[in-house]
Amino acid sequence: MDAEDVGGVHIKYLYHCPRQLWLYLRGIRPEHLNSAVQVGEAVHETSYARGTPVDLGAARLDFVDGRQWVHEVKSSGRPTEADRAQGRHYCHRLRRVGVEAQGAILHYPSTRRTARHPYTAEEAEQAERDIAEVLAVAARPTSPDRLARSRCRGCSFTDYCWTE
Fold first, then answer.
1. How far apart are the C-alpha atoms of 118 and 114, rounded to whole Å?
2. 90 vs 158, higher pLDDT
3. How far is CA 85 from CA 42, 47, 92, 162, in A?
4. Which of 68, 103, 108, 140 could form a disulfide bond with 113, CB atoms 3.0-4.6 angstroms apart?
5. Residue 99 located in a structural domain
6. Which of 67-81, 122-136, 147-161 is predicted with the least confidence, judged by mean pLDDT?
7. Domain that holds residue 54
8. pLDDT band at 81 (very low <50, low <70, confident <90, very high)
């Protein structure tokens, strides 16, 4: 795996749980069995259908508006650092292919909120650090430690981490 292979899901999992990222990178993909993931897919399919998805290979973002803001639809009710990191990563990827992304607008349809995050020089530096961290997790021969069990609520990887 190299930097060009790092996509939005890798960044999201890095922020959620490095162990989740490590398992995902090794082909363990239980998401389709998780009801929260299914709800998220339904929200995504029924919200903001006017935009055209943008496929950047390893990264697939919801849409980019005419002012070059990345738009991402999220199923959760509240913003998380993982959401912001994913938007930042998409801006970074777009800039690398010559699109001057201005930032990310995160949409939360369940609470009718949006969060706007301009893409600054500091955000660009953090995007590079995030990619380096994903690559470091990918290179580990053993999985990172589990998080506290209370942080695993709703995670589709719970059985892989907590079954003894």
1. 13
2. 90
3. 22, 21, 10, 27
4. 108
5. yes
6. 147-161
7. 3-150
8. very high
